[in-house]
Amino acid sequence: MVARGIEEAAGFTPSVVTIGKFDGVHAGHAQLMRQVVAQAAREGLTPSVLTFDPHPLCVLAPERAPKPLATVEERCDRMRELGIEQIFVLPFTREIARLSPEHFVTQYLWDVMQARFVWVGDNFRFGHRQSGDPATLAALGERYGFETRRLDPVKWRGLVVSTSEVRTRIEGGEVSLAGRLLERPYALSGDVVRGQGVGSKQTVPTLNLRTDAPVLPRHGVYITRTTDPETGRRWNSITNIGVRPTFGGDKLTIETFLLDPFDGATPSRIRVEFLRRVRDERKFESPEALKRQILHDVGRAQAYFRRLARWVI
User: Fold this and answer.
1) From residue 219, how far is each of 172, 191, 240, 245, 278 by CA, in Å?
2) Report field, pTM of the whole predicted structure over 0.85
3) Helices 175-182 and 27-43: crossing angle, nearest 10°?
4) Least buried of 5, 37, 95, 220, by fewest C-beta within 10 Å?
5) From CA 247, how far away is CA 195, in angstroms rounded?
């Protein structure tokens, strides 16, 4: 159940809860939620999340607000995949920002979430001017009847997992590493739109994606996997993000060439998962030279998927 206001959350039951923005729901967030789900099962409580929309900085300091990795709907979908059953999306306002740590606890953790256990990360801060920390939360929990649990930072090969780290890796083109930090490939979703017709005539036919996602991988060519969300059709693919310099382009395009047979109607929407970077986008001396390079890129992508199939088996 997803509630976006106190009235909608009236049916919530006593919970084990974690609190945070959870943008991207990366590996660190996922570990917190797995702890919540496990303890809820042991205690006979409901695994829950209290999150915010919009990001607090969008309200308090818009010029410093980070570009989101996921919509609130995508965040909630991922939380449910991890086993979370109650999600309270708190509309963040300046009034909420002014709440003291104690008032935040009584109004939301106790009254709305009916928290019995609260899990937070080591860097958790809350309340007016972020004056509360995990120790503050633990002290308030003793007063109001819930226990606080703290999770140490989650690392991957020595790298601390964070939303800013994921965002930096994606924008730098390191999509394979970003996928490790997210525990799933970074993906873009959107409508399929008509291109300029150049690909079908001079190089190879592609699906052109229009997306509102603010975080895009660095310009270049990527091994990808493409899904039609309406039908579930799925294709191995290769995707170029860039401005098509060979044809004098100056507008950003996201063009995906499907490696698998394409049957049926062209999808109206697609989801493109970015698996590995192949190369930078560059200008070729002719469309024929570009086509030769694309076919070479396709060969690399096909080899990648053959290796992947062997690992799965």
Assistant:
1) 9, 20, 7, 11, 11
2) yes
3) 20
4) 95
5) 13
State the span(s) of the chain assigned CATH 3.40.50.620: 2-156
- Residue 313: other Cβ atoms inside 10 A: 5
- Pinpoint the alpha helices (H) of 82-205: 94-97, 101-104, 134-144, 163-171, 175-182, 198-202
CATH superfamily of 2-156: HUPs (3.40.50.620)
Q: What is the pLDDT of residues 220-266, one digit of tens each?
A: 999 999 999 999 999 999 999 998 776 666 789 999 999 988 778 88
The percent of the chain in helix, strand and coil, each rounded to the nearest 5, is 40, 25, 35
Residues 3, 87 contacting (CB under 8 angstroms): yes
What Rg value do the Cα atoms of the chain yield, rounded? Answer: 23
Could you tell me whether strands 220-227 and 234-242 are parallel, antiparallel, or unpaired per DSSP bridges? antiparallel
Q: Where in the chain is the domain with CATH 2.40.30.30?
A: 185-312
pLDDT digits (tens, 9 = 90+) for 9-49: 999 999 999 999 999 999 999 999 999 999 999 999 999 99
| Residue among 226, 227, 236, 207 nearest 298 (CA) | 236
pLDDT of residue 243: 86
Cβ–Cβ under 8 Å, residues 142 and 156: no
**CB-based contact 49:84 (threshold 8 Å):** yes
- Residue with the two structure tokens 């036919």: 205
